[in-house]
Amino acid sequence: MKVITLFFIAFGLSVAMAQNKQVLYGLEEVPQALLTNPGGKMPAGQKAHFGIPLLSQIHVNGGASGVSVYDIFGESTVDINTRIQEKIFEMSEKDFFTATQQLELISFGWRGNNEIYYSGGVYQELDFISYFPRDLAILAWEGNADYIGYRFDLGQVSATADLLTVYHFGVNKKIGKRLTAGVRAKVYSSIFSASSTDNKGTFVTELGDENSENIYEHNIEGADFLLRTSGLTNSPTSSEVVGRAFLGGNLGVGLDMGATYEVTDRITASASVLDVGAIFHNKNVESFRAQGDYTLDGIELIFPPLNAGEGTFPYYDDLEDELEREIPVDTITSGYTEMRPLKLNAGATYSFGKFVGGQECDCLHKGQIERTQAVGLQYYSIFRPKGPQMAGTFFYYRRLWDFLSAKATYTVDSYSFSNVGIGAVVDLGKFIFYFAADNILSYGNLAKAKSVSLQLGFNIKIDEE
């Protein structure tokens, strides 16, 4: 327990990330926008695209829902121990640290004779989330002297981590004048996986017999912990890791679906559902389960707080030894199925301003003439172990010149109410470069930001003659 607080605050602040791609969603000039909505509109006249390997999409986002680095380590007249204590009590068990990173290895697409746009590729993904175990942090930081009779919830421990490679192939087609729909099939190849969710149990300290040497009873009641892992049974060699990345790991299947509908010449609605699928873990599987009840009476004193000074930690060592003896951990090697975190996107866009390319109107009513400016709203949700995490975005898009377009976003999410992002696409004929960044108002002092995001990529496109 003595490392729980430091791990979830110090480590969590340094690597926390999230998955929302609000700048990229609906940015039609970028081929990778199809990964956020396989039914997104494709630029008229684009015949094919090819991503520059390892550079076509680099994506990292960072954030923590209840605390920033500056809250703990920033300049202040308040003692750091006091700041940590205040944050422990301010945060709830639903606050979280997440980490997501994506690196596109291969990306390609082409328009067939039937006007279907085919696209596919391979990307590597890291996905991690851990909720803040508030009760355990309080117990570790303050001890239990002031919490006699309080039932600390051990089930607040909840975390998942996955490193995998995704192989995908999709189709996108304009149906009629106004509807564009698409679907994408995925094959997941898991490299490493670990998850511990839906845990149960309480820890309570109660007064016992006053005539006993130990007047306190430390009770663990209804404990049920399960940690499932795959790919971690032995220290894998580099060749084994590479083999798992290239369809040699635990495999799974998934599906993305999406559509875009031009309600009027100015109003467009879109939506997508991503990662409807699962991974079937049956190789290198090792799970650990601990169940039971136990009354601890071998320690005479109340557990000291984490900051009580030297010489106090042996009590926690004694507790750990007692638990290992009295609540043994069973090792399970049977396989298990893991659902992928389902993601939802939706958007509504209102276009205005001049027509792109100098055209005066959509005279033939083909629905392919774009305006140079647009505003709109977007919704994002990802399903997590303790419920969905949602975000709402207002955006403004403008095509500045034929070779440059930009999108600015304002997002309200679990991290903050002041997330301003910006993205730009540079189109130099056959070469496309894009970048997007989040929370730009915090770039003067990133330690104050609860989330940070960066996306960039290089692609080659071929237009119809």
Key terms:
465 residues; mainly beta; Porin; 21-stranded antiparallel β-sheet; 6 helices; 50% strand; elongated; disordered N terminus
Describe the structure.
There is one protein chain. The protein is mainly beta. The chain has one domain: Beta Barrel (Porin). Helix content is 13%, strand content 50%. The chain has a 21-stranded antiparallel sheet that branches. The longest helix has 13 residues, at 314-326. The N and C termini lie far apart (66 Å). The model is unreliable at 1-18 and 363-368 (pLDDT under 50).
Detail the topology: elements first, then pairings:
Elements: H1 4-15, E1 46-51, E2 58-64, H2 69-73, H3 80-90, E3 96-111, E4 116-131, H4 134-142, E5 152-153, E6 159-175, E7 179-196, E8 200-207, E9 216-230, H5 238-248, E10 250-262, E11 267-281, E12 285-296, H6 314-326, E13 329-332, E14 336-339, E15 343-355, E16 371-384, E17 387-401, E18 404-412, E19 419-427, E20 431-438, E21 451-463
Antiparallel strand pairs: 1-3, 1-21, 2-3, 2-21, 3-4, 4-6, 5-8, 6-7, 7-9, 7-10, 8-9, 9-12, 10-11, 11-14, 11-15, 12-13, 15-16, 16-17, 17-18, 18-19, 19-20, 20-21
